[in-house]
Amino acid sequence: MTLRNKSGRLSEFASSHAESIIKDARNELKNPARRLLGKRILTLGGIAMLSGCDLSNDKSVNSMLRKMSSFNDDVQALLFSPTTLAPTYPESMITRPFPFNAFYDIDDVPEVDAASYRLQVSGLANGKRVWTLDELRALPQESQITRHICIEGWSAIGRWDGVRFASFLKQAGADLTAKYVSFHCADNYWTSIDMPTALHPQTQLTLGYDGETLPPKYGFPMKLRMPTKLGYKNPKHIVAISVTNDYPGGYWENQGYNWFGGS
Amino acid sequence: MNYARIRHATIQPAWVRISHWVNALAVTLMVMSGWQIYNASPIFAGVRFPAAITLGGWLGGALQWHFAIMWMLVANFAVYVALNVASGRLQRKLLPLSMRSLMSDLAAALRGKLGHDDLAHYNAVQKFAYLVVIVDIVLVILSGLAIWKSVQFPLLRTLMGGYDNARVVHFVGMSVLVAFFVVHVAMVALVPRSLLIMIRGR
């Protein structure tokens, strides 16, 4: 009322506005469904204002995010073309030195003995189950100069030499209609991929880097190279391969990285 | 002035208000999670974002947020653009925009002489800003898609100048969006009635 005395027109305008806002709000709140919606909108706003840390610790928020990540796996499987090739580059564009990256320090790279090394194949496969390094080297070799893209965002171009994974899977008598191929590594890393990516022409069982034997820091004696997937999907020091229809997960994937991880 | 008319004429229809606030929430979450992702491998040496203004806690968490909220951003933006075109609002409110009117309104704004008497009508600077932010969101979405699916979309990758450059485009797009946000919020603070209109429509 004191306001009205100071400036009649202004306060009249303000109070009529205030009244109509309150009237609107009352009408809205009469309807229980709207009241619930209002509550939810407030909750959503509250969630958005919290810091990331608090949000990520919330169980229901986390389960929603995991569900979306799994939905994105399906979307990526749909977007994935078995014939679209990742770009290749001339030798002059190779990144030198190619960065070392793992979940441990370069001093902790495992040393695998070439002579006693055996690759085990298990699961839905009815062919050769144990492979020596020489047997792998005797298979037809291919080479590719492609871009390695890390989930962190950086990328580097390298040259990898090895066996086309699709032809290895055929040699091993793998059931090519199975859903997954999983990998276990000498450094206790593990991951898994979808069958369509396993059969992609650029998916390679890599035995060499840049014309040389694959050095320990890049995954001696053998790694899987996929220019259609992010770095953490490309396991190094592989000792066991399994073909399966049961979702195998992975080291980073189980902590929250997207499972499909395609690019 | 006819107060009764002002009170009852809807300036911002419900679909504009809803898509505006959904977009505001989505962009905020995308930018905050994007900053956390950026920190994992900064493009520009020395440019990093403090943890307090990021979302997700760690790279994996931020990626989950980014790739969940992107659907909200894209779906809402698609509905907004479709309704804008279909309803004729784009033509009516944001067009036409001439360089001459933009320059004269910008000059007036910088001298503090650009009025906001009629909030139903956008001046040339506003038109420009809203059109820029619409185009910028398209750019942010496309460059994001080029980063996410650089192998599956070769044409898009080439348009963005390759994978690494798509990250730079995405960063620039984010920067324009954040700059718009800052000016936009400052303008709302100067003309609080516009906030009321974006909440209740009139």
TrEMBL record, chain A:
<protein>
    <submittedName>
        <fullName>Oxidoreductase molybdopterin binding</fullName>
    </submittedName>
</protein>
<dbReference type="Pfam" id="PF00174">
    <property type="entry name" value="Oxidored_molyb"/>
</dbReference>
<dbReference type="InterPro" id="IPR000572">
    <property type="entry name" value="OxRdtase_Mopterin-bd_dom"/>
</dbReference>
<dbReference type="InterPro" id="IPR036374">
    <property type="entry name" value="OxRdtase_Mopterin-bd_sf"/>
</dbReference>
<feature type="domain" description="Oxidoreductase molybdopterin-binding">
    <location>
        <begin position="108"/>
        <end position="252"/>
    </location>
</feature>
